[in-house]
Design goal:
Strand content: 15-25%
Distance between the termini: 52 Å
CATH class of the largest domain: Alpha Beta
Structural class: alpha/beta
CATH topology of the largest domain: Spore Coat Polysaccharide Biosynthesis Protein SpsA, Chain A
Number of domains: 2
CATH superfamily of the largest domain: Spore Coat Polysaccharide Biosynthesis Protein SpsA, Chain A
Number of strands: 18
Number of helices: 15
Length: 492
């Protein structure tokens, strides 16, 4: 018996036939299932079997699984065309059998008019639970692992968009997900693998139905692995007896932002409030003139505290720790990045009002993405309306960010602290907060997030994006373990 059943989304162009023909002639493929929304039997190559439906749809997936007689299912899940290298399917089979993996995926080659370039992927961790985790264009399943997972954890629920996500999560509970760090195929892709369109897909209102299904599937997964936290387990921020010098502090970490720091500081100082506040700028040993600008501003404004830390190895998270542990930090600490601006003079008041009135440990506002001239650019307003009071703290593990600006109860964030890194430090702190405390949201734009060529959110290389995503996956891994311990309860 041949070892593999291939599942591919049908496309009406010559590339599809060429791609699946190369797979079919490998000698290992029993059949190629061409999935299509419309009947495609009249147009299909002879070696393809038509399957009506969508590749992520529950009904389609269950039909495929129930009718598969091979040991392996190869899903061609990307939006492009996959051309396997000679011997590659054999390598996937060998890896699956030697590692007892439920899922295997590999690096690949990007194929375009400029030639072939290696496209590395990140390894899979237990925290690699995002629905948009990049598996490339080919996802290789063990049929036995699928059958055992569905028998133990339940069939794929009634979904249109999240069926394959549900299947992947269930299989991963007890079986390894194995990454082969070798390009085993080439792919002509229909879209870029990075960029704001993909980055903000989960907050795009047009994707609301898709994201709701993903959240339902993911929440069920958390319950199955014992990492789900009920909303009733979350606490309010408690009153403190500590006497803070100010009600609030705007925290601005900075390094070498000579062109934007003045605007950020002026935006912070211009806030109109009914309480006393100050601004702490942690200058991480700038060398481009930023320090001199801050020194001049500090002489003009007594409520501006310019801190140059003793340590020379701080990331953004370490700079935040310097600020929140300063004797000059206020009762609440509110974020402003050195590239960015508050959208009005009322931002700080609204953040502090929400923190106080809701007794929240953290409040997160909404922001608008603008260019260097403050002109709104896509996707515009990012308001994270996927958050709910009932499940936001769980769904936070699935998405890649929670928004800005962020405001914290200083007493609580001092006890938690930020990791000393310059990417993901905010996400790590926010996950830790919402593990234990209630979080408030403001859905109006309070903040202008500037995109320009020198900031850390500029377009990343594949390697940089992989490194960032792997770090966030490691944060999720630790957070899931911590939540599992909470669900288990204290040791007897």
């Amino acid at each position: 018996m041949k070892a593999v059943t291939v599942v591919a989304q049908y496309r009406t162009d010559p590339f599809f036939e060429k791609a699946v023909h190369l797979i079919e002639t490998s000698g290992l493929v029993d059949r190629v299932l061409a999935v299509s929304r419309e009947s495609a039997s009249q147009r299909l190559p002879a070696f393809c079997t038509p399957v009506d439906g969508e590749i992520h749809d529950r009904t389609t997936l269950m039909r495929i699984i129930n009718e598969t007689g091979t040991n392996h299912l190869l899903f061609l899940t990307g939006d492009g065309y996959v051309f396997f290298e000679p011997g590659s399917i054999e390598k996937m089979i060998a890896a699956a059998e030697s590692t007892k993996a439920g899922i295997v995926f590999s690096d690949f080659y990007d194929l375009n008019e400029r030639g072939k370039t290696v496209h590395p992927l990140s390894g899979y961790q237990s925290g690699s639970v995002r629905d948009d985790f990049d598996f490339g264009g080919a996802l290789f399943f063990s049929t036995e692992a699928i059958q055992k997972a569905l028998q133990k954890y339940g069939l794929i629920p009634d979904t249109r968009y999240a069926g394959l996500y549900d299947l992947r999560l269930k299989v991963s509970i007890e079986c390894p997900v194995h990454h082969i760090p070798e390009p085993l195929y080439s792919m002509i892709s229909g879209k870029a693998h990075s960029g704001d369109g993909q980055l903000f897909a989960y907050v795009d209102p047009r994707n609301a139905d898709v994201q709701k299904e993903m959240e339902i599937v993911f929440t069920d997964y958390l319950k199955k692995i014992g990492a789900y936290l009920s909303p009733g387990s979350l606490r309010q921020a408690e009153q403190t007896q500590y006497r803070f010098p100010f009600t609030a502090t705007v925290v601005i970490p900075v390094k070498n932002r000579v062109s934007t720091i003045n605007g950020a500081v002026e935006s912070a100082l211009s806030q109109e409030t009914d309480f006393p506040f100050n601004v702490i700028v942690v200058d991480n040993h700038s060398m481009d003139g930023t320090t001199e600008i801050l020194s001049g501003l500090a002489k003009r404004y007594p409520t501006l505290k310019h801190i140059i830390p003793i340590s020379t190895d701080l990331g953004i998270g370490g700079c935040w720790n310097e600020a929140i542990n300063s004797k000059m930090c206020g009762r609440y600490a509110v974020q402003l990045d050195s590239d960015d601006l508050y959208s009005s003079t009322k931002t700080l008041q609204r953040m502090v009002d929400a923190l106080r009135d809701g007794k929240y440990a953290m409040v997160i506002g909404s922001y608008t993405i603008v260019d260097s001239h403050l002109k709104k650019i896509k996707p515009g307003l990012v308001d994270h309306r996927e958050w709910t009071d009932e499940n936001g703290h769980n769904n936070a593990l699935r998405v890649n960010g929670l928004g800005a600006p962020r405001g914290f109860d200083t007493n609580i964030i001092r006890g938690i602290a930020f990791p000393n890194v310059s990417y993901g430090e905010d996400y790590a702190a926010a996950l830790r907060v919402c593990r234990e405390y209630r979080v408030g949201r403001i859905y109006d734009s309070l903040y202008l997030c500037r995109r320009w060529e020198e900031n850390t959110d500029a377009v990343l290389t594949i390697e940089e994006a992989n490194r960032n995503n792997a770090f966030k996956d490691s944060i999720r891994t630790e957070e899931i373990r911590a939540r599992q311990q909470i669900s288990k309860g204290p040791n007897p």
